[in-house]
């Protein structure tokens, strides 16, 4: 287990920053409640994953360098409320910048001290969360990049079970991709929509009030579909659930 | 003037100079991964039996030519097989078996497919109506319920392939945990015959609507007689 | 978008509208995938088995020239005739030549993706050789003039009624002969047995070749792989040059994971290892001391057709593939659109790398975009190929060749320029939030313009927050001081 840090840098990710700030505020609150001082580097923007996934390596590299700069003014660990963005920094920044004499080593150094939120809470802090309280029933969707890229199989589930007890269960087919996939949702619209439908049907089958995940990218896609269907099910980021009833 | 072989090999060498092969795939392969749950000698007959039965094969126990012949005659009767294609007696692991079977009314049909195409077709056609094939086995694999059959003089491939019923006589002491274990013991096994086949159960397919059926091309019924 | 890409999207639309196909895909891939999970669960150390299989393949590919040459020498030393086919046309020419030189008019085939890749059947038919597919699914495909839709189970897109109708029409089958699946299977067995007995040539693929002994391994469940390679006098095996392992022990390592990955079986029914043609007698044993049966001739045709070139690209890891189909069965996209939509011989995740790799990015890169990069394929691969990494490599190659849609090519540098200038990013964010407030409806956007409209075809789009997280956080901290 990594030694417990006193302070972390928070990389909100562009989707949280622009579309779902509540998830970011909740994440900061949870970290502060664990006694961690949270610094939010003000010049953070976007990790560049959409360009990387589209095959535009040069553009992605430019954004990677900018993000590395923003997060390397200090050597404090970086916490990211997104499995896919954390995966980008941890697993892809080093290979993307492998040929860059200056930023290659910086990418490796950053990757070594970057964590997805639930990974940080469980693996680094070994946190104990307040016991289950009453609230809505939750269905957990396992976002792909965190699950398979970072191996986040247990950590989010553990946190959710601690906080929500038997109010939380896996969605049927929890580990099946929701169909967001970044630009995939637009380039492969009909397939993405069909995958979304399966996910929405599973949510309906679960009977849960809230679908929860570690990535707002999935939640934006799922939430957009739920709203279009007129569903009363809400889509919430894990940080909001962990932060407590005010955020549900 | 280079040959296709030289050009292909050169193209491969050229490719290897630029290849992006993952680093983790270096190092000589080891061959023990499947072995940690190897069964004991005592467990192997039961493990083999369970595995083959689960594949719709049948396992019998018998000993001696008479005992084995009893089982085979019973199987032949059940499938109305009046004749058989067989390995030579010395490879069945049960001395005198063919003689006893003959006296029980199961005649052996011999064949010769080495001739010219026309003659070959005639001889093969004559085998078309044979109801039972009889072989021994080089080894049996407990993990998968598989039989290892090595072709050679007196050990034709067709016996385990053409007739709808295949009966194999195997001594228990020829059981091995797995193919990997067998190969560790016999690293030159693949050179022992032009054909080394592992048969794990009767022929099967699920091509139509994922519905399992047996006896597509190979035998529909597989019986293994384990002898002491 | 290129014509090829447009055609791909049209085929996808057709597939998505086919409810019957969807049901069949869900049933088949679901069963195969759960079979795989169960079968690997039965291994004491599944991860070690995968790693061992990977090493067996990787060590061969890493020194492919050496092992291939060794294979060819070993095979020749044991009586096989080895041919080298640089292109698909060469393979066709070699094999039709073997048939024509011997006056062969009928060939039986066991399932081989490589023979489909080189379009062998048509070439043989043109050369006066009737070709009969003997794998039940491929037999049905051939009867119907159809194409397989899955690497392992070729006719998941057909119902039993489809097959019954085909048998009645093409084989003149009586109603009782197609009454149920066992009946149809028995009919196929009878029809094909007659072909096996008469064929002058048997054609197979090769699942794996063993370099040290020049052996080829052909794996089937039906037994047609054995009949094809035993009854006819001449056996021709088409071997993709990368499908090799160094030793017999390596073969066993890969076999441990192959059937488990493909169908969920611990072992295929027939694992057929062939080392040379029928061994002749002679010498002290006399002619009777040879093999009683088996082919008189074994021809191994080593096929390049772009594989050696692929080896020198960032896609080289795909050469470890053993064509088990596991990646298809877990791919959420394949499970929706099936094999035909991909438009090539190899579908699914592996096809999305192999098709551009062998046949060029221009015509095939769109396949690599038909993925959300979820990674399920990587987890399922028995030799741990990092398929998402390879898909990204195809995408990079496509982008470098200006194959991305115009709006994406235009948007990327703008996106990068904004993101690398924090002040501009903040400004754009604020402007977007203001704009959204105008077009929003109850906090959501119901219709996005242009290509982005694909999103709002089935989902609403959230509006940007009034105040971004970073700005709000800074404001709160300032207020707290």
Question: How would you portray this structure in words?
Answer:
Chain A has 248 residues and is α/β, with parallel strands linked by helices. Chain A has helices at 14-18, 21-33, 49-53, 57-71, 83-96, 103-112, 117-124, 144-149, 155-164, 184-187, 189-206, 216-229, 238-243, and strands at residues 7-10, 37-39, 78-80, 114-116, 138-140, 168-170, 210-213, 234-237. In chain A, helix 12 (216-229) links the parallel strand 7 and strand 8. Chain A starts with 6 loop residues before the first strand and ends in a 5-residue tail after the last helix. Chain B has a single domain (39-227), classed as 3-Layer(aba) Sandwich (Rossmann fold). In chain B, the strands form three sheets. A six-stranded parallel beta sheet of chain B has the order 1-12-7-4-2-3, sandwiched between helices. In chain B, a hairpin with a 7-residue loop joins strand 10 and strand 11 (213-214). Chain B is globular. Chain C is α/β, with parallel strands linked by helices and 481 residues long. Chain C contains 23 helices and twelve strands. Chain C is elongated, with a radius of gyration of 27 Å. Chain C starts with a helix and ends with a helix. The chains are: A alpha/beta (248), B alpha/beta (228), C alpha/beta (481). Chains in contact: A-C, B-C. Strand 9 (195-199) of chain B pairs antiparallel with strand 9 of chain C.
Structural classification of chain C: alpha/beta
Encode the helix/strand succession of chain B as letters: HHEHEHEHEEEEEHEEEE
Oligomer: heterotrimer
Estimated helix fraction of chain B: 25-40%
CATH fold naming of chain B: Rossmann fold
CATH second-level architecture of chain B: 3-Layer(aba) Sandwich
CATH homologous superfamily label of chain B: NagB/RpiA/CoA transferase-like
Number of separate domains of chain C: 2
Provide a quick synopsis of the model.
Chain A contains 13 helices and 8 strands. With 248 residues, chain A is of the alpha/beta class. Chain A has a 4-stranded parallel beta sheet, with helices on both faces. Chain A has a 4-stranded parallel beta sheet with strand order 6-5-7-8, with helices on both faces.
How would you summarize the topology of this molecule?
The complex is a heterotrimer of chains A (248), B (228) and C (481).
Chain A: E1 7-10, H1 14-18, H2 21-33, E2 37-39, H3 49-53, H4 57-71, E3 78-80, H5 83-96, H6 103-112, E4 114-116, H7 117-124, E5 138-140, H8 144-149, H9 155-164, E6 168-170, H10 184-187, H11 189-206, E7 210-213, H12 216-229, E8 234-237, H13 238-243
Parallel strand pairs in A: 1-2, 1-3, 3-4, 5-6, 5-7, 7-8
Chain B: H1 4-18, H2 44-54, E1 58-61, H3 64-78, E2 83-86, H4 97-103, E3 107-108, H5 117-126, E4 132-135, E5 139-141, E6 146-150, E7 165-171, E8 175-176, H6 179-185, E9 195-199, E10 204-205, E11 213-214, E12 221-227
Parallel strand pairs in B: 1-12, 2-3, 2-4, 4-7, 5-8, 7-12
Antiparallel strand pairs in B: 5-6, 6-9, 10-11
Helix pairs in contact in B: 3-4
Chain C: H1 3-16, H2 19-41, H3 46-62, H4 64-77, E1 81-85, H5 88-101, E2 106-109, H6 113-117, H7 120-126, E3 130-133, H8 136-143, H9 160-171, H10 181-198, E4 201-204, E5 208-210, E6 215-220, H11 224-228, E7 234-240, E8 244-245, H12 248-262, E9 270-274, E10 297-303, H13 307-311, H14 326-330, H15 334-337, H16 348-359, H17 361-369, H18 376-380, H19 387-400, H20 406-419, H21 422-439, E11 444-445, H22 453-456, E12 461-462, H23 469-480
Parallel strand pairs in C: 1-10, 2-3, 2-4, 4-7, 5-8, 7-10
Antiparallel strand pairs in C: 5-6, 6-9, 11-12
Helix pairs in contact in C: 1-17, 2-12, 3-12, 16-17, 16-19, 17-19
């Amino acid at each position: 287990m990594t030694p417990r840090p006193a302070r972390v840098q928070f990389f909100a990710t562009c989707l949280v920053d622009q579309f779902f700030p509540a998830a970011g505020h909740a994440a900061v609150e949870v970290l502060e409640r664990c006694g961690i001082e949270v610094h939010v580097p003000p010049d953070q923007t976007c990790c560049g994953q959409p360009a990387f996934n589209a095959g535009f390596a040069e553009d992605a590299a430019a954004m990677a360098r900018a993000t590395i700069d923003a997060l390397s003014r200090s050597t404090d660990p970086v916490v990211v409320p997104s499995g896919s963005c954390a995966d980008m920094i941890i697993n892809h920044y080093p290979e993307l910048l492998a040929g860059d004499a200056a930023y290659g080593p910086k990418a490796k150094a950053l990757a070594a001290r970057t964590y997805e939120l639930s990974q940080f809470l469980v693996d680094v802090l070994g946190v104990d969360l307040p016991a289950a309280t009453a609230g809505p029933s939750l269905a957990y969707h396992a976002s792909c990049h965190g699950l398979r890229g970072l191996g986040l199989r247990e950590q989010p589930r553990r946190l959710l079970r601690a906080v929500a007890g038997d109010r939380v269960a896996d969605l049927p087919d929890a580990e099946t991709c929701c169909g967001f996939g970044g630009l995939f949702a637009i380039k492969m619209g009909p397939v993405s929509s069909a995958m979304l439908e399966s996910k929405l049907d599973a949510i309906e089958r679960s009977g849960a009030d809230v679908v929860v995940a570690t990535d707002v990218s999935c939640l934006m896609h799922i939430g957009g579909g739920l709203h279009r269907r007129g569903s009363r099910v809400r889509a919430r980021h894990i940080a909001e659930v962990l932060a407590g009833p005010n955020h549900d | 003037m280079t040959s296709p072989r030289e050009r292909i090999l050169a193209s491969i060498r050229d490719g290897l100079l630029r290849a992006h092969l993952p680093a983790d795939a270096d190092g000589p392969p080891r061959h023990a991964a499947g072995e940690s749950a190897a069964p004991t000698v005592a467990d192997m007959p039961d493990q083999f039996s369970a595995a083959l039965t689960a594949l719709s094969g049948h396992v019998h126990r018998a000993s001696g030519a008479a005992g084995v012949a009893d089982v085979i005659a019973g199987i032949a009767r059940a499938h109305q097989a009046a004749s058989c294609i067989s390995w030579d007696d010395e490879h069945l692991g049960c001395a005198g078996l063919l003689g006893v079977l003959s006296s029980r009314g199961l005649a052996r049909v011999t064949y010769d497919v080495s001739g010219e195409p026309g003659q070959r077709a005639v001889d093969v056609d004559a085998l078309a109506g044979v109801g039972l094939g009889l072989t021994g086995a080089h080894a049996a694999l407990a993990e998968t319920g598989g039989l290892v059959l090595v072709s050679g003089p007196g050990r034709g491939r067709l016996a385990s392939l053409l007739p709808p019923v295949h009966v194999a006589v195997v001594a228990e002491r020829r059981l091995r945990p797995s193919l990997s274990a067998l190969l560790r013991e016999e690293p030159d096994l693949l050179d022992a015959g032009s054909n080394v086949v592992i048969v794990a159960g009767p022929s099967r397919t699920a091509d139509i609507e994922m519905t399992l059926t047996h006896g597509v091309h190979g035998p529909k019924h597989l019986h293994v007689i384990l002898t002491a | 978008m290129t014509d090829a890409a447009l055609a791909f999207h049209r085929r996808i639309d057709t597939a998505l509208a086919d409810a019957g196909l969807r049901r069949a895909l869900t049933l088949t891939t679901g069963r195969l995938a759960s079979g795989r999970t169960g079968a690997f669960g039965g291994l004491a150390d599944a991860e070690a088995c995968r790693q061992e299989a990977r090493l067996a393949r990787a060590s061969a590919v890493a020194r492919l020239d050496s092992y291939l040459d060794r294979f060819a020498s070993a095979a020749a030393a044991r009586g096989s005739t080895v041919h080298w086919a640089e292109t698909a046309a060469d393979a066709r020419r070699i094999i039709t030549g073997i048939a024509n030189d011997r006056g062969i008019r009928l060939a039986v085939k066991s399932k081989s993706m490589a023979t489909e890749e080189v379009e062998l059947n048509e070439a043989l038919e043109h050369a006066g050789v009737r070709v009969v597919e003997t794998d039940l699914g491929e037999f049905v495909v051939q009867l119907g003039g159809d194409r397989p839709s899955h690497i392992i189970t070729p006719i998941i897109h057909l119902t039993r009624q489809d097959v019954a109708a085909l048998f009645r029409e093409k084989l003149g089958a009586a109603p009782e002969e197609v009454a149920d699946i066992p009946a149809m299977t028995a009919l196929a067995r009878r029809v094909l047995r007659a072909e096996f007995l008469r064929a002058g040539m048997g054609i197979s693929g090769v699942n794996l070749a063993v370099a040290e002994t020049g052996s080829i391994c052909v794996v089937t469940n039906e037994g047609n792989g054995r009949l094809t390679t035993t009854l006819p006098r001449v056996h021709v095996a088409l071997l993709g040059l990368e499908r090799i392992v160094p030793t017999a022990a390596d073969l066993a390592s890969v076999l441990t994971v192959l059937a488990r990955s493909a169908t969920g079986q611990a072992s295929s029914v027939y694992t057929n290892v062939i080392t040379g043609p029928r061994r002749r007698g002679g010498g002290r044993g006399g002619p009777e001391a040879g093999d009683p049966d088996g082919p008189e001739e074994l021809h191994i045709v080593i096929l390049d057709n772009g594989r050696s070139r692929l080896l020198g690209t960032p896609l080289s890891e795909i050469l470890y593939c053993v064509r088990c189909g596991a990646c298809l069965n877990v791919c959420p996209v394949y499970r929706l659109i099936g094999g035909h939509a991909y438009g090539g011989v190899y579908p699914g995740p592996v096809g999305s790398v192999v098709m551009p790799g062998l046949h060029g990015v221009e015509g095939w890169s769109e396949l690599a975009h038909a993925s959300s990069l979820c990674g399920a394929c990587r987890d399922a691969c028995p030799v741990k190929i990092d398929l998402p990494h390879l898909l990204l490599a195809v995408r990079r190659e496509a982008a470098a060749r200006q194959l991305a849609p115009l709006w994406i090519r235009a948007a990327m540098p703008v996106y990068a320029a904004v993101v690398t200038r924090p002040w501009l990013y903040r400004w754009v964010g604020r402007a977007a939030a203001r704009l959204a407030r105008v077009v929003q409806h109850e906090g959501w956007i119901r219709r996005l313009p242009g290509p982005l409209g694909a999103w709002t075809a089935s989902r609403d789009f959230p509006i940007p927050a009034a105040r971004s997280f970073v700005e709000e956080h800074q404001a709160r901290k300032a207020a707290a001081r």
